[in-house]
Batch of 2 targets.
Target 1
Amino acid sequence: MANLSFVEKQVLENILDMDNGYVLDLSNRNFREIVYDATDLDIYSEKYNDYGESKANRLRSFWTKESNQLVSKLLYAMANYWEHIMVVPLGHVNTDSKFFKGLLQIAERLKSEMSDHIAAMETNINDISFQKLKRIISDLIEDNKPDEALDRLHTYMVLYLRKLLDKYGLRHNPSTPLHALLGTYKNKLMQEKVIDSVMTEEILKSSINILEKNNHVRNNQSLAHANDLLNYSESLLIFKVVSSTIEFIESIEERSK
């Protein structure tokens, strides 16, 4: 579900002229095409028929079912349509108006919430291959393809934790699995009494268990092999959990300086 406030929904209702069941001046065919081009989803599927058949009702249903990322991509697409197809020929609204800016502002806010998770993956590791891998993952997430990023995300975490263990001279080898790498780092934190709360220790233990399951996802539900990809929402959840783990580790490393 997109994190749209009541006020933002009312703003979008006004901007997109949804009072009478329409969305801008889009025909049914154009409405379907603009949604599909932006999100790869069919707005005329039964999934979006909760409130009724009209374009406005289907868009309202889309807001309640899809993620911030998807809704943001669709709002950008509608802004692009407004600017280059609807506004220029008709000339009745311009892109300097508060309405057009309001549409972009909401789209940008929704997008920024995912950008926070991407930013959480920033590290101080200056390895060229590692940084290229991060850019690939970031591009896939921003392009709304978390399912295609899963195998790269697994590789990223393996490289990240290996570099971290090397930094402290902690033993591992090329066959050490991802969850065991994190377990070694967690043990170091516990031995040095870096962790202050029992709850944090339990969260780290849970993260180790989660990363152990990530091995299965990589081997059986990612592009690492000829697999059927994991669904969108679960792929996005995995990305958020992994990025949060990296963010916590980086905060520990920063504090240790």
Target 2
Amino acid sequence: MSEDINDYPPQPNRPGYVVIRTEQPDRYKILRTCRLCGKPSSVEVPAQGLWDWEHGAFIQKAFPELSAGEREQVTTGTHEACFDRAFRDED
């Protein structure tokens, strides 16, 4: 199974990202394209968290097990390393 968003048709109500199943029934992958480097980005998430996030839950509440960098990939597609390079001087 490919992990590039461009290999899948757009999914209604999911602007800028695609969700695919994993081999585990309660897990999905969110596929995006990094806004800074243009390379594919994917994060595996639990099904319940995905439902919660897509229905308005704050990302920290929907995916408490994800790191801040992984949550950034979910929301914008930006890789943690790309984000750090772009904003390293903004502390």
